[in-house]
Design goal:
single chain; 130 residues; alpha/beta; Hypothetical Protein Mth938, Chain: A; five-stranded mixed beta sheet; three-stranded antiparallel beta sheet; NDUFAF3/AAMDC; MTH938-like_sf; Xcc1710-like domain-containing protein
Amino acid sequence: MKFQADRFDMQTITGYGPGWIAVDGEKTTASTVVTSRGQRLDWGCSSFADLTPEHFARLAALQPEVVIFGSGAAIRFVPPAWLAPLMRQNVGVECMDTQAACRTYNILAGEGRHVVAALLLEAGAAGGMP
């Protein structure tokens, strides 16, 4: 009995490491928003300190079911007020380190959920891709 498809029909995160991710095999070192509906957007920040309420308002405009926030190498939380646009839409937000966020995005997207992964890739944390 088969429980899982051989391939996903949406974009997946196919690799990650310190300071980089690969989406469908394409490596990037810039903070990125990946959606299960095929969008990939530059998130316009290179450190946790760069984040503003506008970064999260952009996520709300995508009207996801859930947002996975990858906060870099460590788990960090943004001020709750910044999440207000998402909360008004009853969008769930989960904060975790970026590598855990990559794994979680793939699981939720594979289940057919409308998920957005906002992945902080911090400058100076780059490592090589295996």
